[in-house]
Amino acid sequence: MTDKLPVASEQKPTADKRLPRSAIIIGLCSFLSDASSEMIYPVLPIFLQETLKAPAIVVGLIEGVTNGAANLIQIVSGRLSDRWGKRKPIAFAGFVLSAISRPLIGLAGIWQVVLVARFSDRMGKGVRSAPKQALLAEAALESDRGRVFGYDRAMDYLGSVVGPLLCLLFLGFFALSPRSIFFIASVPAFLAALMILAVRESGERLQSEAQVSAFRGFTPEYKRFLLVSAVFGLANSANAFLILRATQLGFSTTQAILAYTLFNGISSLASMPAGSASDRFGRRNLLLIGYGVYALVYAGFGIANQTWMIWLLFAAYGLFPALTDGVAKALAIDTAGKQGRATAIGIFSAVNGVTQIAASLIGGVLYDIDARLTFYLGAALAMAAVLLLFMLLPSRLQVNRV
């Protein structure tokens, strides 16, 4: 294996260090959309178990299947975006699909309705994600790609901080029911859909239809990265299990939401610095640290037997997405070259989707047997991914720039 990967040079729209206008708008869309999602996410597993009397395996089924489907659909939306040369209309449709799902959850009387609504929500995320990430990639120089993706992740996780806090405000101060929260959460989701229409896109078609659809056109490094991602995806079960574990160890609903907010707050603060660090020190190196953090935190959730430990673990867990989410997407685009950015992101996300379905279903089965088993398995598989990533990808990728 060579130490450096040549990537075709390309001309980007701007060379200064200010964030591009389109990237700023996309970040605001991410903020609003995630504030909407995270307003309902902390109470959703509790709503399923306490109100709709669903077992833990159903929580895993809903989160695993719906998130997996969201990732799988990115192959279709990404390829369509590359072939059509249009990003905004597809992204807009995805934002709208997510927004209309919120009231459906509020009307649910059985968990099967929640499954359908969450499927609609996550399908919307899947439809919009690949074209949205392609818009981000097209807004920045390759040398600045990690910082731009880090900014988007930071705004996403800022929404993840604001959303749970709004949830607590509505539940506590205004004494609203969880069902009311689901209706209110549709407002920022619809605002995000309208805002994405303000993004400028180039309409550039990077490859022909035949080239975009040919998986063999991707680099060996990209394919090896997919293998590593698949192994880690099997470790990465739904975050809902972290919330259930916290309540199992004595957290109240309010404490669980605050701990989840702490996790998202640290993710928001660390995402942009982590993205910039990946531009300087190599994306693989940041991912190695992120996967290692995940393994240690999951082992900790298995070992923990006191509530103070949970606070520390949620805080440490916040570093994991900051070090991996935006960095992994940037690495997928780097290693895929110009074979269709949205297609590259779509395939990468689909691999994650398939494995995360399995991870969440297995995690739910193990959780009903012994909650610790879910976390011990996740820790072991994450360490396996660390070893594979170290062996299969170079520490730095050489990028030829104009």
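Next protein, fold it too.
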Amino acid sequence: MSYFVDDDIEIRDMIPADAQAITDAEIAQGWDQTVEKYERRLQDQAAGKCISLVAEYRGAVAGYINVYFNSEWGALGGHGLPEIIDFGVLEKYRHRGIGTKLMGCAEHIASEHADQVYLGVGLHSGYGTAQRLYAELGYVPDGSGVWYRNEVCPPYSSCCNDDDLVLYMVKEFRGKRRRENLKAQFERYFPDGMK
């Protein structure tokens, strides 16, 4: 299914061929990656646990994002809330609006399931672009503090600033002001509407 299409970008459901294409592209840009992560997303999608989206830029796989409907992870896990996880845009396709379109589609899907959505963002500099994007889109820290390896990192404890050190953030969809802000965002990023 396609969620958004314009002259350059299409956002659609992930298909099996995408798993290897994304893996190969991430390895080519120097990331340590295996195909199993994307195959797991496809299995979860087939089981109805999530929707896994892929962005194509002029026909080439350029990015991905996943919306888990009742996530079990993080401070808000197990509370019936959707979580946006595993969001990425390949380096050579960045700064073309692909990430913003992926987030817009993911938030639209999440808003159909709950009044809020959450996500975890890494804290090292490699996540700097994502940190800025989430703040611009209205995400705020959930108040649980920093997490390390799926547990709250206690005050003054030691941890490693790796991909497992995250801050969970939440975005509200309901309420008059939230609805107006969300509508304005969708109109800004999707002036012709979503499919």
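About the second fold: The chain has a mean pLDDT of 90.
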